[in-house]
Write a structure and sequence with these properties.
Layout (H helix, E strand, L loop, with lengths): L17 H12 L4 E4 L6 H10 L5 E7 L6 H13 L5 H4 L6 H9 L7 H12 L3 H13 L7 E7 L1 H8 L3 H19 L7 E6 L4 H7 L10 E4 L5 H15 L5 H11 L4 H14 L9 H12 L5 H4 L1 H9 L2 H14 L6 E2 L4 H7 L1 H12 L3 E4 L2 E4 L2 H10 L7
Parallel strand pairs: 1-4, 1-5, 2-3, 3-4
Antiparallel strand pairs: 6-8, 7-8
Helix pairs in contact: 3-6, 3-7, 5-6, 11-12, 12-14, 13-14, 17-19, 18-19
Length: 400
């Protein structure tokens, strides 16, 4: 097992997710379409890619990431490119009566080895504003897949990013509604039942994005699947296994202190802490001490060098929320980060009275996306690492 940091992991590097993988396949085999709900950095994409890497018998899986997209043509092009590049489906898509421009693109990519990214870009340009027609033709071909063949699972990662961008203007909001309606139609079409399933997710919550746009009804047929951080015993076993594999074994007290400092054992943060401590000690376990662990946490992980690994938490808020909601989110997080035990709801009462429903909506999304959680009468950061870093670099009431 390798300690892969920052990239998605699959196979032997994917640790402690056997139960979640089994539940995903069970849900899919029951005929459900899935909305994956997960906080940041708990391994959502890794789980998606593992489904593709090791599908169950009689399943084919394609994976598309639409994070950089800005319109419905991006979605259609991504799915079509993935299918056209797959030898199991390519011949079935060569006969689709697309527009001449789309057929020309597909004709130029008939070689055995297809650069999916290049194909995707060219298909988007060819589809243009005619995305709805292209989606019709794609659905028709999916309908004609053999009934006795393998099930097709289409995994769509970062769909909330695409939809959020489209909701920024009135014209594109209409396109977003049309795209989501199209996807709902695919999921409910009797002719696709038993042939095609979808799994969608993202690093910002699709539910919150659509609730603010009054479009929640377009995903209420998706089965929610919750993915959370490791539990503490899993995190302990992971660090022991990792230490054995790289000859950097940590004693029980050191592992306990690491997890106490993190508080929430987000897999990525556990991996990052282990790697940082190993480098600081030059791979010599004898150098590990409580002081060294504290210094790695305060100066490296929660310090300026941690920005590259944590700044996405701030960036995601700008994408997920409109301007007023973003300001509200920063106010809530600013107050919650100043003490380890968070902020009492009485300390947030002025925000609730001033903004009412918007405050409640933003708070709900911050909890769903893994920033904060209720504990009794207080609101606390789930991750003590994120809290420390946020207080240093994003709390406008405190100088860095």
């Amino acid at each position: 097992m390798r300690n892969v940091i920052g990239q998605a992991v699959v196979g032997d590097d994917l640790y402690g997710r056997d139960y979640e993988l089994a539940r995903l396949w069970e849900t899919l085999e029951q005929g459900e379409h899935i909305l994956m709900l997960a906080p940041r950095r708990v391994g959502k994409t890794s789980l998606m890619l593992e489904l593709r890497r090791a599908p169950r018998e009689n399943w084919n899986v394609i994976y598309v990431d639409v994070e950089r997209g800005d319109g419905p043509a991006d979605f259609v092009a991504a799915v079509l490119a993935a299918l056209a590049a797959d030898r199991r489906y390519r011949s079935r898509f060569e006969t689709i009566p697309f527009s001449g421009a789309v057929k020309d693109v597909l004709g130029r990519f008939q070689s055995v080895s297809v650069d999916v990214d290049v194909l995707r870009v060219e298909l988007k340009g060819a589809i243009g504003r005619e995305w709805d027609h292209a989606a019709d033709q794609l659905q028709a071909r999916l309908t004609n897949l053999p009934a006795a063949g393998a099930n097709l699972l289409i995994i769509v990662d970062e769909l909330p990013f695409l939809v959020s961008r489209m909701l920024r203007t009135a014209e594109r909001k209409h396109d977003a509604e049309m795209l989501l309606s199209r996807l709902r139609h695919w999921r409910q079409a009797p002719e696709l039942r038993g042939k095609v399933r979808t799994l969608v997710g993202g690093s910002i919550g699709l539910e919150g994005v659509l609730r603010r746009a009054s479009l929640s009804g377009l995903i209420n047929d998706l089965a929610p699947f919750h993915l959370d951080s490791w539990d503490r015993p899993t995190a302990v076993e992971f660090m022991k296994a990792l230490g054995n594999g790289c000859d950097f074994r940590l004693d029980d007290a050191s592992i306990a202190r690491i997890l106490d400092l993190l508080r929430d054992p987000v897999p990525y943060h556990v991996q990052l802490f282990f790697s940082t401590l190993r480098d600081a000690c030059r791979n010599k376990p004898s150098r590990v001490s409580p002081e060294m662990i504290e210094r790695c946490f305060e100066e490296r992980l929660a310090g300026a060098s941690g920005t590259a690994h944590l700044d996405h938490y701030a960036e995601r808020l700008e994408i997920a929320f409109g301007e007023r909601e973003h300001e509200m989110a920063r106010d809530i997080l600013g107050r919650a980060c100043r003490r380890e035990d968070g902020a009492g709801f009485a300390e947030l009462e002025d925000l609730r009275q001033r903004s009412g429903q918007m405050y409640l909506s933003v708070l709900r999304d911050l909890e769903a996306d893994g920033y904060v959680r209720h504990e009794g009468s207080r609101l606390k950061f789930r991750s003590n690492l994120l809290r420390k870093w946020w207080r240093k670099y994003h709390d406008r009431g405190v100088a860095p």
